[in-house]
Design goal:
Layout (H helix, E strand, L loop, with lengths): L1 H20 L7 E5 L4 E6 L5 E8 L3 E7 L10 E10 L3 E13 L5 E11 L1 H7 L9 E11 L1
Antiparallel strand pairs: 1-2, 1-8, 2-3, 3-4, 4-5, 5-6, 6-7, 7-8
Keywords: Membrane, Signal, Transmembrane, Transmembrane helix
């Protein structure tokens, strides 16, 4: 009888460990030196992470969308595109890739690299300044915690 109980407990432990390893992370907030700096995670109807949105350190808003059909996947390179504003009015576009490291069953540490293009001349032209339509491209590397 002891062997049966030991086998049942062992099977339960193995099932629990294997089951937890297959759980898809489900964070709700993003905090980091990234676009967005403080934000929220967007999910699709199937529960896949489609992107993020929120506020950035550049005094603006940010939105990022992951291009894969199954959303952001941990331990894989995930490509994205995004848009937002800097200094409240200056629009920007970004493209890049994120690598997500699982920290817990529903937390991620993400490293992103990409390029951002800020359209500062657009705001100047709309305000009536005689400046050209300047475009400022810049590469970046960023880090964020998904909690």
């Amino acid at each position: 009888m002891r062997k049966v109980w030991a086998a049942a407990i062992g099977l339960a432990v193995v099932t629990a460990v294997c089951g937890l390893a297959q759980v898809r992370p489900s964070p709700t907030m993003v905090i980091g030196l990234d676009f967005p700096t403080i934000g929220w995670v967007r999910y699709d109807k199937d529960g896949a992470i489609r992107g993020t949105w929120g506020f950035n350190l550049g005094l603006g808003i940010s939105s990022r969308t992951y291009t894969a059909k199954d959303g952001l996947q941990p331990e894989k390179l995930n490509f994205f595109w995004g848009w937002g504003t800097l200094a409240i009015l200056v629009p920007y576009l970004e493209i890049g890739a994120t690598y997500a490291f699982p920290m817990d069953t529903d937390k991620l540490f993400c490293v992103s690299a990409g390029g951002i293009v800020a359209f500062a001349g657009l705001v100047a032209a709309l305000a009536g300044y005689p400046l050209p339509w300047w475009v400022y491209p810049a590469p970046y590397i960023s880090f964020s915690f998904w909690l």
